[in-house]
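Thread: Newbie trying to understand structure tokens

Hi all, I'm a second-year student working on a class project, and my supervisor (Dr. K.) asked me to get a predicted structure for one chain before our next meeting. I've only ever worked with sequences, so writing a 3D structure as a token string is new to me. If someone could post the tokens and maybe explain what I'm looking at, I'd be very grateful. Here's the chain:
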Amino acid sequence: MPAIRQVDQTFVFKRGVRDLIVSRKLRASGFDCVIDFTRNDRSASLALLSGAPQRIVTDRLRRKSPVRARVYTEFADCAMPKMHTVDYNLALLHPLGISGAPAEPILQLPPYAADAAAALIQRELGEQPFAIFHPGSTRAEKFWEPDRWAKAMAFAKNELELQPVITSGNSPLEHAHITQIQSHARIPVIDLTARLDLLTLTALIARARLLVTVDSAPMHLASAVKTPQVILFGPTNPFHWRPRTSPAAILFGAAREPLQQYQPRAPTLPMNQISTAAVIDAMRSMHTAPAASAV
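---
Reply by user tm_fold:
Sure, no problem. This is what the structure looks like when written as tokens:
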């Protein structure tokens, strides 16, 4: 949240006894309006708990869950299945008279994040240009084949002359996947697994020449800092989640070329349909795209 200057306060609910304290703070804050982006039972309860006189949600909820819809006072004309997620979220502002808001993600990194990334680069990479590989996700169905990741990293090192850097979150599932990838690697790889907070990771991505990842948080961070990227989609539909404001090659299924057109309804495809050759071709293409910054 320090990178989103317009956010003044956060309330974190963890389904524990401490939530009672957070609930009282939420109620006492006296919010005028609540916008529900997630439209589930928990978010409906929090919207009601806030005591805000204006509570906004998508009008689809009136058809999907008439009982839960009673929590809200206004309904925005928007439907997530037919819209990019950013457009859907912005449409929820229409009842407030807000339209035409910029769709481009904006992050203002605090100086300490940039300093931490710079120190890490100096310590681990020196003057080497680098590519970040973020293979992990909390969902195993988003994993691409470990040996293919290793081949993509070898291409970055040997052909593009970019030092591969692996990043990931803290989940044991991700760590196990990265261990498998490393077992196939035949080149030196800098492993930053679970060593970075999100702000430092964002600052590091901003200094990278290329990001190669699955549908994940770093994809959106790269979009905010304009780093070229190659993104592997399968279980999720790029129509809803793809970045739209940074140089990006979107790979989906067995197609050899990156997607150029997107459909609101698309099948769920296994990640192993994406070939190593398609990823390497996309990396070569994105390597020539203008970068936001370089080491």
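A couple of things are worth pointing out once you decode it. The chain has a mean pLDDT of 93. Residues 90 and 155 are 39 Å apart (CA to CA). Feel free to ask follow-ups in this thread.
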